[in-house]
Amino acid sequence: MKIVSYNVNGIRARLPRLLEYLAEQQPEVVCLQELKSANEGFPEAEIREAGYGAVWHGQKGFNGVAILAKGGDPVERKRGLEGEPEDEHSRYIEADVDGVTIASIYLPNGNPVPGPKFDYKLRWIARLSARARELLAEERPVVLAGDYNVIPNDDDVFSVRAMATDALMQPESRQGYRALLAQGWTDALRTRFPAGRVWTFWDYQAGAWQRNAGFRIDHLLLSPQAADRLAGAGVDKDYRGREKASDHAPTWVRLRV
């Protein structure tokens, strides 16, 4: 069972690339982030024609998350996180697919630091951690997949100095991510590549892709029951180099059925 996290950076703009990916890779599940589309603008017909059912939580022009499942509809469990009722950002959706609970997550960027956006990022991590603890208590296979906007370690970035002041690498951001892992989650990509230096994002600016100046911010965290079934993890890097591609590459985990 291949489960993919893919920040598409605008689903309408990247729809040809997404459909291309689905056709070529045929993953069982794809978690999308940064749809930048209201619910009514989600391309359900095109995705169904490609053989996938979907649930989505859209927002016009910003954010937005979805879960696609090959050959059927994901069974939605939850959209949004508790703890901040006034928060209208579409950043979390959760569904069951073939006995696995899967969440698609788009964690706030948090820049500039310091400031209200960074404070919101830290509160959001705390809210995600509360939901993650609830999911662990269910003692079932769970995958928390998404763009976490956190660079966990120094070897997860092309240049520590270049990103030192960025919200993605602040000690508080990293501590929030590590506290989440400490609950009992397994970072699938880190498990497969313990030495790091595996990127999932390359900026459009300054020739980052051409220089391979990337970093790792797309993560798939596994509950113990999912980690027991871990068969592989990786990044489909080549898709970042295609015409009009997203600045993220599809990042995946494979679980034994």
Can you describe this structure?
- The record marks 218 as: Important for catalytic activity.
- The record marks 149 as: Transition state stabilizer.
- The active site is at 106, 147 (proton donor/acceptor), 248 (proton acceptor).
- This protein is of the alpha+beta class and 257 residues long.
- The chain has one domain (2-255): 4-Layer Sandwich (Deoxyribonuclease I, Chain A).
- Helices cover 28% and strands 27% of the residues.
- The protein has helices at 11-25, 44-49, 116-137, 160-163, 171-182, 188-192, 208-211, 224-227; strands at residues 2-7, 29-33, 52-57, 65-70, 75-79, 92-97, 100-106, 142-147, 186-187, 201-202, 214-215, 218-222, 230-235, 251-255.
- The strands form 3 sheets. Strands 3-4-2-1-14-13 form a 6-stranded mixed β-sheet. It has a 6-stranded mixed β-sheet with strand order 5-6-7-8-12-9.
Q: What CATH architecture would you give?
A: 4-Layer Sandwich
Oligomer: single chain
Percentage of helical residues?
25-40%
The helix-and-strand class reads alpha+beta
Beta-sheet strand percentage?
Answer: 25-35%
Number of strands: 14
The CATH topology comes to Deoxyribonuclease I, Chain A
Low-confidence spans: pLDDT under 50, at least 5 residues?
Answer: none
Q: Output the strand order for the largest sheet.
A: 3-4-2-1-14-13
Shape, please? globular
Total helical elements: 8
Domain Endonuclease/exonuclease/phosphatase: 4-248
Active site: 106, 147 (proton donor/acceptor), 248 (proton acceptor)
Binding site for Mg(2+): 7, 34, 147, 149, 247-248
EC number: 3.1.11.2
